[in-house]
């Protein structure tokens, strides 16, 4: 192993989209920095997402301002490999100082001098500042209700790649956010029996009156919302760019053959129970969908836009039997279920960041990414500054704010008062004299 001693002003940990955006803004502001990535640039898009995944937003939207997906139709949805290649190309564009294959193992504040000591897989680094860009979705979160049963094949959605990876038999997909619905759909289309456990969700229309929902959320100011509406903390968003993009419609999924159930309750003696909340969750999702159509119509009228009307968008299919006569308990063997996919989200892991920037539950404490520990920053976290903060386009703006903060702090640190400036002048004159004598 090579052991190096490196010094830098700002160390960015992680080279996903957040790390690349940080590096671009720091470069523009002339801040010396280094980005360390333990794997490859945009690694999670390469290995921690399923094979058929495409971006949830269209190519014109899900990108940084400085580069377009020039090989894609602007309304198309970039495949995940293309997204990884995009960030690699983006980093090359400004020659980002990224070192891949280097893991940051520990960061501690120096007790006796400014800055941080960073222990990495290639040795020690001294940095004045550290930006944690290690992702919003780091550690798979599987709820404690998961049964301890060796006969069941259980994986998290981040480990799902394709239907062939699962054993023969039926699947229970727990969680109906964008990951759960897309995985359930793919498995059912591959011929599997699929149960989908549906919790509270928003389901914006994929598009309405010729505009993608990303556009609607933008013009309606929803991406800029600074905090979740109270009571919506556990509401996920169900959208899909798969097969050219479509609105997630649970009644359609039921008609297609997916067996919908409410939130998963308990597992015991080979049986699984479900809450009686399926119909309520679907109706609340409908309300969210219809509210967006209303807001869109009002926006069009207010701005006198000439966009084609779409009255059929308000037609909902009749309630399927799984809504009117919900399944509340299933014998998994009888139902033929031998796999469970937990599409239940992620948590973070900051075990490597040993600084005073967390609350007693380990949650990062920060204002728009500027943490409570001077010199430590977070970027890419959910709701860091607004709803868009975890998304490709949104993280770029948060990174800009953080880079500005760093540049401003450097300016303060570089300030010299009149005495210091005079002392500098005298020392410059002395140096010049020495040079001319020599
Ligand atoms: C299934 C799924 C689909 C998504 N689809 C979209 C979409 O279509 N559009 C959109 O805008 N957003 C989407 N997102 C949200 C978001 O864009 C991604 O989660 C994105 O990967 C977040 O980027 P990031 O740079 O913040 O973090 P990450 O991509 O997680 O990058 C963090 C990097 O840090 C590295 N790292 C971690 N710890 C260390 C360490 N100790 N030392 C060195 N390196 C380390 C990791 O290897 C990783 O490469 C999706 C998320 C998921 C889960």
UniProtKB/TrEMBL annotation:
This is Flavin-containing monooxygenase. PANTHER family: FLAVIN-BINDING MONOOXYGENASE-LIKE PROTEIN (AFU_ORTHOLOGUE AFUA_4G09220) (PTHR43539), FLAVIN-CONTAINING MONOOXYGENASE (PTHR43539:SF78). GO terms for molecular function: monooxygenase activity. It holds the Pfam family Pyr_redox_3. SUPFAM superfamilies: FAD/NAD(P)-binding domain. InterPro entries: Auxin_biosynth/cation_transpt, FAD/NAD-bd_sf. Its EC number is 1.14.13.-. It comes from Oceanimonas smirnovii. Keywords: Monooxygenase, Oxidoreductase.
């Amino acid at each position: 192993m090579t052991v190096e001693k490196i010094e830098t002003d700002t160390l960015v940990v992680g080279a996903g989209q957040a790390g690349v955006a940080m590096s671009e803004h720091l470069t523009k502001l002339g801040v010396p920095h280094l980005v360390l990535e333990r794997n490859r640039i945009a690694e999670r898009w390469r290995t921690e997402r399923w094979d058929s995944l495409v971006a949830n937003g269209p190519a014109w939207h899900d990108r940084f301002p400085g580069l377009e997906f020039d090989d894609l139709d602007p309304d198309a949805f970039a495949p995940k490999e293309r997204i990884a290649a995009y960030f690699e190309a983006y980093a090359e564009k400004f020659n980002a100082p990224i070192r891949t294959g280097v893991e940051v193992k520990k960061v501690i504040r120096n007790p006796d001098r400014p800055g941080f000591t960073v222990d990495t897989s290639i040795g020690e680094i001294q940095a004045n500042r550290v930006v944690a860009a290690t992702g919003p979705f780091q550690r798979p979160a599987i709820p404690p209700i998961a049964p301890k049963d060796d006969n069941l094949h259980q994986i998290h959605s981040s480990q799902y790649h394709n239907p062939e990876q699962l054993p023969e038999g039926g699947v229970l997909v727990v969680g109906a956010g964008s990951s759960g619905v897309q995985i359930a759909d793919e498995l059912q289309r591959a011929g599997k029996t699929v149960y989908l456990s549906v919790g509270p969700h928003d389901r914006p229309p994929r598009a309405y009156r010729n505009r993608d929902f990303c556009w609607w959320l933008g013009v309606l100011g929803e991406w800029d919302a600074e905090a979740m509406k109270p009571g919506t903390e556990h509401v996920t968003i169900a959208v899909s760019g798969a097969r050219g993009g479509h609105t997630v419609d649970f009644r359609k999924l039921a008609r297609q053959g997916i067996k919908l159930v409410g939130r998963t309750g308990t597992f015991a003696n080979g049986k699984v129970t479900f809450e009686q909340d399926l119909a309520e969750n679907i109706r609340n999702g409908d309300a969210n969908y219809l509210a967006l159509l209303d807001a869109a119509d009002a926006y069009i009228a207010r701005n006198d836009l000439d966009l084609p009307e779409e009255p059929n968008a308000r037609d909902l299919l009749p309630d399927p039997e799984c809504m009117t006569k919900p399944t509340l308990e299933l014998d998994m063997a009888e139902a033929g279920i031998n796999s469970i996919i937990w599409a239940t989200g992620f948590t973070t892991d900051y075990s490597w960041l040993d600084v005073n920037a967390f609350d007693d539950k380990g949650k990062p404490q920060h204002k728009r990414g500027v943490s409570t520990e001077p010199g430590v920053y977070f970027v890419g976290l959910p709701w860091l500054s607004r709803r868009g903060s975890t998304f490709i386009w949104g993280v770029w703006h948060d990174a800009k704010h953080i880079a500005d903060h760093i540049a401003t702090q450097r300016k303060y640190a570089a300030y010299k008062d009149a005495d210091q400036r005079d002392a500098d002048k005298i020392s410059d004159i002395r140096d010049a004299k020495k040079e001319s004598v020599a």
